Amino acid sequence: MSSTQRVESINAVIYKYVNSHSTLMECFNGIQSMLLSELQKAEYRDYLENLPFTIGSSSAIRIFPDIIELLKSSLTDEIFRIQKAQMDICFEYFFRLIPSNQYETCDEVRIYYPT
Fold it and tell me: In angstroms, rounded to a whole number, what is the distance separating the alpha carbons of residues 45 and 24?
């Protein structure tokens, strides 16, 4: 979040709570809530940046176009981007090719099915 956006967010909270009917505690709690929300969004962005792969596809748009349009019209831009990234992550996977000289090792792996 840019510093201008942060200032605007804090200003919005202050304008909401600084009036003759609000207490100082209500103003403080409003600012704390806004900062917590900002922190959660920053932590999520860090999480996405630290994934072992990049989200290169837009699978969600191809598979769920109606849902994507509904989300886009219902959510804020930032929340929509987070939700769409989550949907795209569901279609991503990390893989590694197994060299042909290790095929026998793969045949020895047994799958355990609990009874």
Answer: 32
Question: Whole-angstrom Cα distance, residue 84 to residue 91?
Answer: 11
State the CB neighbour count (10 A cutoff) for residue 111. 4
| Interval 9-55: pLDDT, tens | 778 877 877 777 888 888 888 888 888 888 888 888 887 777 665 55
Q: Give which of 72, 7, 61, 66 is closest to 34, Cα–Cα.
A: 7
Q: Which residue has the tokens 């990049």?
A: 54
Instruction: Using CB atoms within 10 Å of the CB of residue 109, give its burial: 0 to 12 exposed, 13 to 18 middle, 19+ buried.
Output: exposed
Please give the structure tokens belonging to residue 55: 């989200």
Name the token pair of 67: 């849902």
